[in-house]
Amino acid sequence: MKNSVLNYGFICLLSAVFYSCQKLAKVKLDAASQAYVIEGVITDQPSDCKVFISQTKAFGDNNAFIGISGATVTIENKGLVVPLQEVKKGVYSTNAITGLSGQTYKLNVNIEGHLFTASSTMPKAVAPEKIYAEKENIGKNKFITVVYQDPPETDNYYRWVQYVNQKKELTIFVANDEFNNGTRASNVLNFRNDISPDLKVGDTVRIDMLSIDAAVYKYWASLRQTGSGSGVSASPSNPVSNIQGGCLGYFSAHTLRKSDPLIIK
Amino acid sequence: MQLNDRGQMIFPGSTLLYKNSGSCPAGISRLFMMSVLKVVLLVWAVLHAAETKAQQQEDVKISLNIDHLPLKEVLRRIESLTPFKFMGKAEDIEKEKDITLHLKEEPVIKALEAILLKRNFQLKRMGKNIILKKGQGKNVLSGTVKSAKTGETILNATISVLNSTSRTSSNEYGFYSLRLAQGQFDVVISAIGYRSKTENINLEQDLNLNILLEEEVKELEEVTITSENSQRNLLSPQMGVERLSMKEVKNIPVLFGEKDILKTIQLLPGIKSAGDGNSGFYVRGGGSDQNLILLDEAPVYNASHLLGFFSAFNSDAIKNVTVYKGGMPANYGGRLSSVVDIKMNDGNSKKFGLSGGIGLIASRINIEGPIQKDQSSFLFSARRTYADLFLKLSPDSNLRKIRLYFYDINAKANYIFGDKDRLYLSGYFGHDALERGKKTGIDWGNTTATLRWNHLFGPKLFSNTSLIFSNYQYQNNVNGDGNNYNIFSQIRDWNLKEEMQWNVSPKNALSFGFNVIHHTIKPGEISSVGEDKSLSTTSLAWRYAFDNALFVSNVWKPSEKFNLTYGLRLSSFAILGKGPYYDIDGNGKILDTLNYGPGQLVKNYLNLEPRVAASYQLNEWSSVKASYGRNTQNMHLISNSTSSSPTDKWLASTNNIKPEIADQWSVGYYRDLKDHKYELSIESYYKDLKNQIDYRNGADIFTNKPIETQLLYGIGRSYGIEFQLKKKTGRLTGWISYTLSKSERKIDGINNNQWYNARQDRTHDIAIVAIYALNEKWTLSANWVFYTGDAVTFPNGKYKVDDDVYFYYTNKNAYRLPNYHRLDLGATRQLRKRKNYSSELTFSLYNAYGHQNPYQTDFRRGKFNHNITEAVEYSFFRFIPSVSYNFKF
């Protein structure tokens, strides 16, 4: 939200009045020692408990990230420990457990003696009531608006994932209910066309709506704010992870509700 | 705040009675106040012990009754009763008649000395012989220095006695006071931009001498400079100070040709620009919020327009700026890094005038004239930008919807009541709008008003009382994720300041006073607006505080070579209810909420701020100085962005946010070269910072939750050395400045608790400014700046989360933006100069060789090849030409 304000201010100024330019730069960056990246997910949908394990790479390397094999991964709930099997290099999963709202899940990962733990509580499910496409306030692009009923209690956190023509659009969309608790709320999924193309007539769009807990919200919000590589932030930093043990990534127990597909007209 | 405590004190070792009429801040006991004053007294006593001792020579106690007798007879009687023998010029002694002296076992010489001193005799003892010398009494020469053309008072003019070391400067109201021995001498009065003047005076009694200085026409001939009219005072203990008058800087080229005092000071050593074309600045490694910016004594919280590209101050209305980078006088306080004291013009008291200018970005108009001819005046000055008017012509309908402008108005009037009183009323009103459509936009502005009363209690005691109102407010409508939000911030201050300047003796100049500020603050409340009406927006509480200070400072000149300024500032920051305050643990978790009633004291922070400065003049052309000072700051700007942003928050200290404290030590060497034509200054400083504030990693800044849950605290240090070589007279004027410096922070919870570079840490900073008067018509100018790029955080790696690439950071601010450098050129063409009308054209070219100076580097997945990552640099201004037309009736 903050970035949108800033961008708006600068875009206004720069495009309208001043001369500004951008160019690709050669920046000499020192490679740090590698760190593990753990991405753990359990949802209230069957067969949806997965953990991805990988490592950081140097900036100059390509974007093919290779999974880490041979880790011991378990999910624990109410004393029941479920092991996850490595189904692909660096991908661990199980069909033996399906998440339930209100339950706390604990992740344990052992990579060659390095222990990582995290816990996450699955919130109550909130489903999108409807989605529609609308032109932004100013500009020509259409964006999707999600409408949903925020529950009366406070501290609800959401994440949306957008699929355009079955393909995941990568922008992070998160929100909390600090300013609209208990209302029929709406959220515009406003994204930049740097990598994903703008929505155009005939595209089919579908939305996943995730109810996440506070720590996971913090992770996504801080990743979006300070980890995305934007120079607007005075203090870029790694996002606030909910995993103990010194690694990057998160562990999220969340509910998942899908919207109906929408064809852009 | 009531004026409830008063202290009276007598300085030991002198017969001075000093009545302190300062107010005491809430929560300070009278006892504490007295102990503060005792510290001052102790310093006084120690420093003056030597003087006192000389008076305690052996004396003889006798009883004596003399009524209305001539001096000759009195001396004869004393000689008969004591072993003393008197000597002196007979004609002097015979003139003195009618002496009355009654003693009862009292020291006779002391009594005699007291009587004769009034009759202008000095007694000198040589054992039992006492020499009477018709002396040289001391009298006070005082007055106001003004411009002969406009009647504007002239600040910091030098008043010196030819062939003597006696000299002083006019204060911020043009007033000066100099205690001199009786006699006849030549007094030289000089000020930058004015022709020096020599007045022959015969001082037999206190003399009021108001001085009118003629403006310097373009100086095409070299002027002879002597130590008397050299424009800086090598002996003044004040260091770390930079003074610029608008006259001096008007020819320096600036962005868009819009003269800007805050951008010009960035060319001085130790003062660094907050970015390309930015009016924000950093002083000696401090943050941009650590500068106290005063406009006619009123603090201005956001001294910029248009996201920082212009300063809030219209150059037409500004007379002069004084920047203190260190060794702040005790009458200033409240910010750690600097004081930027900006004085507005008073207005022309000789005749009505209309002037103005038309530029590319803005137009200005200025009206001034006398209220009482030759005495008092008014001024009204306004400017407005018109970028949005051009946007209206744009074929793009989106651009037409943008409202983008700022305007500001300065107004001032003064009135003279008799010889001793002058009343000023000045005001500033500035407003910015940056809006897109109706729902999205930023509106902000500062309003200040100052009512000021100068009063002379005599030629030696000058009083300045100010009642100041200051309001900073912004409103920001954001369309975020489809919802409409409103961010609202406000700081409203009421401020009473009393300052007395007392020229106690030729050796001592005391200043003292108090300052009471009441703050009302709303630090960025977010509320949702529009159709999506929120049911439960929690509002952010108003914050209230009394920000008080008592100060006393003395300039002591024990010898012709050594000067010492010592002072104390006692600051108190009393946080008052009503409102909730929080007990917060180290992880930012709220443990307890404490609700305070209206006016209830939450917390009072007391700080003693000692300020000491010394100077020693090595010879006629060089001196060394040293100073130490402590400053505290209770108003903090919390920011997480690289430029000024709507989410920046001004916060007052709370029970969790402690006052920031800075201790600064500095030493300097000053030398005039080539018969005082060049001034060389070298200053070095070390600054120690406490209670520095930063956001936690991943802080949520878009929230109404208690801000302290998002903050971390730590320490800082900065040090450096500054060189400046300046030429102030002749066809070619200007300066070269170079700063070598370091600024670091260490905050628990950031960078693994290790020291890291502050963003504004710039190793090298060079500025070269040159102004050349080619002929009567043309003045050319150029400046070149170079500095080490900002310390920034770049990624040391990358990783994949949720199918996208993100960046991995290890060390904070361990990288640098590329070095910044830029050349600006300017030229001023005088068009017409008649008695009643003159006009000129000003041309400038900003970034003349078009070097791209990146202000930001983004890292992203390759735009065309998604399998790589790339770095993109953004830069602003290249080859910005401008032309403006200025006129004056």
Architecture overview:
Chain A has 265 residues and is mainly β. Chain A folds into 2 domains: 36-122, Sandwich (Immunoglobulin-like), CATH 2.60.40; 128-232 and 256-264, Immunoglobulin-like (Sandwich), CATH 2.60.40. Helices cover 11% and strands 43% of the residues of chain A. In chain A, strands 2, 3, 4, 5, 6, 7, 8, 11, 12, 14, 15 and 16 form a 12-stranded mixed beta sheet that branches. Chain B has 889 residues and is mainly beta. Chain B folds into 3 domains: 7-55; 61-134, Phage tail protein beta-alpha-beta fold, CATH 3.55.50; 299-888, Maltoporin, Chain A (Beta Barrel). In chain B, 8% of the residues lie in helices and 55% in strands. The longest helix of chain B has 26 residues, at 30-55. Chain B is globular, with a radius of gyration of 31 Å. Mean pLDDT of chain B is 83; it is low at 1-37, 49-57 and 219-223. The chains are: A mainly beta (265), B mainly beta (889). At the A-B interface, helix 1, strand 1, strand 12, strand 13 and helix 2 of A face strand 31, strand 33, strand 50, strand 51 and strand 55 of B. Strand 1 (21-25) of chain A pairs antiparallel with strand 56 of chain B.
Name some characteristics of this structure.
heterodimer, A: 265 residues, mainly beta, Immunoglobulin-like, 2 domains, 12-stranded mixed β-sheet, 2 helices, globular, disordered N terminus, B: 889 residues, Phage tail protein beta-alpha-beta fold, Maltoporin, Chain A, 3 domains, 22-stranded antiparallel β-barrel, 5-stranded mixed β-sheet, 57 strands, 8% helix
